[in-house]
Amino acid sequence: MNSLLAGGDSFTAHLMESNLAWPNHIKEWIAETHSVAEMASDNELIARNVIAGLQKFEATHVAVGWSDPNRFSLYVNTEHPLYMDIYNKMKDHAGFTNQILTGEWHCSTHGTFIKPGGGYDSWSTKSDIVNNLVKEYIKNYHSREQQMMKTLESILLVQEFCSNRGIELLNFKAWDHDLFHTDYPMTKHLEPLIDKELWWLYNGKCGLKEWCQDKGDDQMPGGHPASEYQYLFAISVIEPWIEQEDF
Fold it and tell me: Of the chain's two ends, which shows fewer C-beta atoms within 10 Å, N or C?
């Protein structure tokens, strides 16, 4: 029996009826499916969730929809003297979660990821501490080159983990973001290590969003593929890959 672990951001995580993501459409007789995808994830968090998920679930296959390399998350824990203040103000916020420790999209009293998601440059919360942490990171540490380094290292982590354990792997882009479109001095040694045979790239460079649009999705509720096109992606791309058919 095949077992599939799905990882990614909201394009793989959505559970709303209008945007029900592709892992929810995989037929049970094709693969038992578990998802560790998470809303607003950056690529480091996607990799962490996949690695943790592979400790929890025995998977024969892993499929990962990688997000915009420029997204980031910040991990804060009880080593921060004001962590419980942060926790109490952020505990119901969707951008404050630790799936690894809680098994759900919930925060942990030990430590939690701050996830600004796609709107990181204008993100604001009830916690001034969190707002300042995010603003400081963007001002002093965030760069496109560094984020691409982190993304490629995260992809390689998952690639090597699956290879070492004989797990089938399929990667794709959630949409046509910067990945594989840039040329930075600090990523030149990393990109050649990525096995492009393990990638599904629509038209050689694009992702799930563009595929759905070309299939007729002109609605994109909330900027994400509609459920019927997520279903189409599941039966046209993911299921044939699991069954080792052309896709």
Answer: N
Could you give the strand order of the β-sheet that contains 61-66, starting from the edge strand earlier in sequence? Answer: 32-35, 3-8, 61-66, 168-173, 199-200
Q: What pLDDT, on a 0 to 100 scale, did the predictor assign at position 110?
A: 98
In 89-146 the beta strands, taken as DSSP E runs, fall at 96-97, 111-114
Q: How many helices (H) and strands (E) does the chain have?
A: 9, 8
- Residue 236 C-alpha from the chain's centroid: 21
Nearest residue to 220 via CA among 179, 187, 174: 174
Burial state string for 178-190 with b = 16 or more CB within 10 A and e = fewer than 16? ebbeeebeebeeb
Fold of 3-70+144-242: Rossmann fold (3.40.50)
- In this predicted model, what pLDDT tens digit does every residue of 77-136 receive, in sequence order? 999 999 999 999 999 999 999 999 999 999 999 999 999 999 888 999 999 999 999 999
Which of 164, 211, 155 lies closest to 22, judged by CA? Answer: 211
The pair of three-digit structure tokens given for residue 193, joined into one six-digit string = 């290590």
The angle, 0 to 180 degrees and rounded to 10, between the axes of the packed helices 43-56 and 144-164 is 20
Q: Is 120 helix (H, G, I), strand (E, B) or coil?
A: helix
Phi-psi region of 192 (alpha: psi -120 to 50; beta: other; left: phi over 0): alpha
pLDDT in tens, 83-99: 999 999 999 999 999 99
Report the alpha-carbon angle 51-14-116, nearest 5.
70
Residue ranges, CATH 3.40.50.1110, the chain: 3-70+144-242
Contact 2, 32 (CB under 8 A): yes
Q: Which of the 8 DSSP states describes residue 19?
A: G
